[in-house]
UniProtKB/TrEMBL annotation:
The keyword Oxidoreductase applies. The keyword Chaperone does not apply. It is an enzyme of class 1 (oxidoreductase). It catalyses: urate + O2 + H2O = 5-hydroxyisourate + H2O2. Catalyzes the oxidation of uric acid to 5-hydroxyisourate, which is further processed to form (S)-allantoin. Belongs to the uricase family. This is Uricase. Keywords: Oxidoreductase, Purine metabolism. It comes from the Bacteria. Its EC number is 1.7.3.3.
Amino acid sequence: MPIKLGANAYGKNAVNLSRIIRHGSHHEFRQVSVSVQLTGDFDAAHTLGDNSLILPTDTQKNTVYALAKEHFTGTIEAYGLVLARHFVSRNPQVRKVRIELVEHLWQRMEFDGQAHPHSFTGGGSEKRRAVVALTAECTATVWAGIKGLMLLKTTDSAFVGYPKDEYTVLPETTDRILATKCEAEWEYTSADLDFESLYQKVRTSLLRTFSEHKSLSVQHTLYAIGKKILEETEEIKEISLVMPNKHHIPFNLEPFGQANTNEVFVATDAPFGYITGTVVRG
Ligand SMILES: O=c1[nH]c(=O)c2[nH]c(=O)[nH]c2[nH]1
């Protein structure tokens, strides 16, 4: 049986780029982790050690910084497209480039209702993410997403009617805490869109459905969130959601002579329910 090289790709991961955008004394601050991945004609590099078609990952890293001065002034989606077009147009050996950008969300400080011109606080666990793929034929695909979005509501969440066997001890509940650290990723229908307003629209829709939905399970809420986003936003082809169930378990206060009327809980890290799903059209 002959042996040959299968699928392969290479690039620089986690290029940590930060940038100040100055408008006089009012500054914007952006911080993003960029990963570049190239797919293409790299057989000779693997089988012969011939590096003549290998654009060094160090050069890829430098390109992320060099193009940032002129081009990283808007959305991460737009900057991803600039980088992808650069690598594809300069390197005929590249069949496909994939750029992943994960943005740390710094929040501007505010004092007495006044936005501070140059000071920020860390945005917590929430990150904004974009992935851009561009082929040598210039077909671009853009995905956008949210990571680490902590969501919690204190009512309008139930879990009843599930099968019970000899190992089931979970009591049915019609009023529990629903908490998750949500991840969402959606694919756009085009690479020529207002990525900023679409991102804000999707994020707001996600929060609104989470808070307003009469949840019968995490699965039920996940689908409701995805369905609403697709109904409201024709520029989105499909959306995938990850919604771990961050359990808050009622603590037994009976040994202390008190009734726990759904007020005191143990917040548990592990294990946790892991609920994922993609909502599609048609
Ligand atoms: O919303 C839920 N979905 C489940 O699949 C599940 N399983 C479980 O033990 N609790 C829950 N809650």
